Each structure stands twice: as C-alpha cells, then as structure tokens.
Amino acid sequence: MPQSLARVWVHLVFSTRERRMYLQSADLREEMFRMLGYHAKQAACPPARVGGWSDHVHILCGLSRTISIADLVETLKCETSKWVKDRALDLEHFIGRMATEPFR
Q1: Which residues contact 91 (CB under 8 A, 6 or more apart)?
Q2: What is the DSSP string of 31-49?
C-alpha cells in the first residue's frame, strides 16, 4: 500500500479547580469554547466539538501527527490561562488561586 492514513480522535476534559463554577456566564463559556477551538485548530488538531458547563470543558479534536497529546494539553491550558487573565476580570479569584496554590 503506497500510503497509510489514520485519524486519532482525542477527548480532553478540563475541570476547574475543586470543580468550582467559575464559568457560570453562558457568554463567557461560549467565548472560551471558541477560543479553545481556535487554538486547537492552530495546533493542527481540528476540533469536532468544544463544549462544557460551568465547572468543566470538553474538547473533541483530531490529533495531528506532529504534536503529542501532552503538548496539545499544555498549549490549550496555557492559552486558557492567558485568556482568563486578559478577558475575564470577574474571575480574579480564579486567577489568584491558580497563581498562589501549589499543585496537588
């Protein structure tokens, strides 16, 4: 066979710290979902669905052959953190907890 093709789908779930409902605003959630979809696409991992609720996010995307799952997760979490710091002033307590609490 001259060429082999495969598509690996990845279902990522991000939870807020302690499952707190930081994303209660529907507008805020929708904007975050669009932002996450954009960054997944930029990482060559086209999103099929991005959604979630006030305490978690789901991302279903195709995994690029040029990026590891760990690198994709790191990219998305980093971009989410930047986005929250720039956009969501009403989530200052979320930002403060991320910056001061040790990883468990």
Answers
A1: 22, 84
A2: HHHHHHHHHHHHTT--EEE
